[in-house]
């Protein structure tokens, strides 16, 4: 877990210490001061210690409506491949998040992470079937864990538009990498599924009670939802591709790790840059008042 000596150095503005914490997936937040950053990491350490203590005393720990047990803890070796994947793609390795196998009554449940900000705490739960196998139905254990590790690393960034875009970069499926970020929030998923359910309900009503019920009006919410979400996601992916191209001109193969540490607004700005000189000048300006960008510059742009 977070070393107090390292944390004190980071709190005092030691760039090497901040870089080390960044490597561990403890990224600075969007507008986070060093004092707030240190407070958050101490809170994380205290929360994990509290959980470990409860597990040691009672064998179980309850978080919201989820209960995990000591003997359900995911062995460290299962995280090896997801950690390698996030390191290769985004330049971080998280080894401090506790994970647990749980039984689930949900047929399509694969796993999820619970994380809180700024009262920082995080843990994983994944389906017990993954204790013995890498794949279950449509899920792969490595992809599932790497996906959630990305969310935890970016918890302080406050992203909405690109959050799932980055997380789905861990997928081995080209299709999921392309469209996986279409649903940005539970509301997006619910609106899509809800509008599809309206079609089903209308069809059942026609079959069972009202044979003359016209069906096409019930398709309109679904089609509107589909067109809106595909159009919005298409625009997002176009800007993301432009941002990758612009940043690659400055950082080469490190473009993706740099963008991973950017806010939505910063990604929009980078995508709109016309030339490399303007982008370099903008980065230097950001470094004047942002420790997050100083870490980015040092780690991925080769500058101090």
How would you describe the overall organization of this protein?
The chain is 57% helix and 10% strand. The chain has 304 residues and is mainly α. It has a three-stranded mixed beta sheet. It has a two-stranded antiparallel ribbon with strand order 1-2. It is globular. The model has no long low-confidence stretch (mean pLDDT 88).
Write the layout of secondary structure elements.
Layout: H1 4-11, H2 15-23, H3 34-58, E1 60-63, E2 66-69, H4 80-90, E3 99-102, E4 111-116, E5 121-127, E6 135-136, E7 139-140, H5 141-153, H6 163-167, H7 174-179, H8 186-208, H9 216-251, H10 255-260, H11 264-271, H12 276-289, H13 291-300
Parallel strand pairs: 3-5
Antiparallel strand pairs: 1-2, 4-5, 6-7
Question: What are the salient characteristics of this protein?
Answer:
304 residues, mainly alpha, three-stranded mixed sheet, 13 helices
Spatial arrangement of strands, main beta sheet: 3-5-4
Q: Approximately how much beta-strand content do the residues carry?
A: 5-15%
Order of helices and strands: HHHEEHEEEEEHHHHHHHHH
Q: How confident overall, as mean pLDDT?
A: 88
**Share of helix, binned:** 55-70%
If helices are DSSP runs of H or I spanning 4 or more residues, what is the number of helices?
A: 13
Please state the CA-atom Rg, rounded to the nearest Å.
Answer: 22 Å
Oligomer: single chain
Number of DSSP strand runs: 7
Show unreliable segments: none
Task: Summarize the main sheet.
Answer: 3 strands, mixed
Query: In angstroms, what separates the terminal alpha carbons?
Result: 27 Å
The best one-word shape is globular
Structural class: mainly alpha
């Amino acid at each position: 877990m977070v070393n107090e000596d390292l944390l004190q150095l980071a709190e005092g503005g030691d760039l090497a210490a901040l870089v080390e914490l960044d490597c561990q997936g403890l990224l600075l937040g969007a507008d986070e001061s060093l004092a707030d950053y240190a407070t958050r990491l101490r809170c994380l350490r205290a929360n994990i210690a509290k959980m470990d203590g409860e597990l040691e005393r009672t064998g179980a720990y309850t978080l919201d409506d989820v209960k995990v047990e000591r003997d359900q803890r995911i062995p460290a070796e299962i995280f090896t491949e997801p950690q390698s994947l996030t390191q290769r793609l985004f330049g971080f390795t998280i080894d401090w998040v506790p994970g647990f196998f749980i039984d689930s009554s949900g047929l399509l449940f694969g796993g999820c992470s619970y994380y809180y900000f700024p009262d920082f705490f995080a843990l994983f739960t994944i389906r017990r079937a993954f204790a013995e196998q890498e794949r279950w139905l449509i899920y792969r254990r490595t992809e599932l864990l790497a996906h959630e590790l990305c969310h935890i690393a970016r918890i302080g960034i406050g992203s909405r538009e690109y959050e799932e875009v980055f997380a789905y970069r861990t997928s081995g499926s080209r299709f999921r990498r392309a469209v996986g970020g279409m649903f940005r929030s539970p509301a997006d998923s619910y609106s899509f599924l809800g509008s599809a359910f309206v079609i089903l309900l209308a069809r059942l009503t026609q079959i069972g009670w009202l044979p003359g019920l016209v069906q096409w009006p019930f398709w309109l919410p679904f089609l509107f939802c589909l067109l809106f979400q595909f159009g919005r996601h298409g625009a997002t992916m176009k800007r993301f591709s432009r941002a990758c191209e612009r940043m690659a001109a400055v950082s080469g193969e490190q473009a993706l790790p740099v963008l991973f540490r950017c806010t939505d607004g910063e990604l929009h700005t980078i995508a709109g840059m016309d030339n490399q000189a303007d982008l370099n000048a903008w980065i230097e300006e950001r470094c004047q008042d942002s420790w997050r960008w100083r870490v980015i510059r040092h780690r991925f742009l080769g500058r101090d």
